[in-house]
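Example 9 (inverse folding). The structure is encoded as follows.
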């Protein structure tokens, strides 16, 4: 059972399986949906937690089934320096945590200064989604030719008319 630590021992879980659990756990909570979508789009933290950090997964005590992330343990791991990554990886995770964990402090200047165009667009979409405006986003981001996202997609593809993945939260709560 998870105890909120960053232990490396424990049951390995496939990233796709954890992704599905996270989407189910976030359903109906726009800020959490946005945070999960950001982590899934970034594609670093979910596999890392799935493979290496069972203490950051919350399980049902009766069934042992993983039901969510232990968001508070994840935040603690970041703030105390035990869970590390590159500056952009840390920034994306910090933005996601700031959308879910009450009181999690985000140094936005530090976070955004470490992001390239692809991840800036992802963060902007997450913030817009959390505010129930997922149709908003970068209209024409400056694209760094070396800033390539998942599957070789250039950041410049993420314009307002970009069709997000099918699992990304859709507009629906606001009148146009």
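The amino acid assigned to each position is listed next.
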């Amino acid at each position: 059972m998870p105890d909120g630590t960053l232990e490396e021992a424990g049951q390995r879980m496939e990233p796709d399986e954890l992704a599905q659990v996270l989407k189910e756990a976030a359903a109906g909570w726009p800020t959490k949906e946005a945070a999960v979508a950001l982590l899934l789009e970034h594609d670093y933290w979910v596999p890392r937690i799935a493979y290496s950090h069972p203490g950051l997964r919350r399980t049902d005590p009766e069934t042992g089934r993983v039901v969510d992330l232990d968001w508070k343990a994840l935040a603690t791991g970041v703030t105390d320096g035990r869970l590390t990554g590159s500056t952009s990886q840390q920034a994306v995770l910090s933005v996601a945590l700031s959308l879910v964990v009450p009181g999690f402090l985000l140094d936005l200047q530090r976070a955004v200064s470490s992001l390239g165009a692809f991840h800036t667009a992802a963060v902007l979409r997450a913030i817009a989604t959390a505010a129930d405006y997922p149709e908003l986003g970068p209209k024409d981001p400056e694209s760094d030719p070396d800033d390539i996202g998942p599957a070789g997609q250039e950041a410049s593809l993420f314009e307002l008319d970009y069709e997000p993945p099918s699992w990304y939260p859709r507009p629906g709560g606001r009148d146009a």
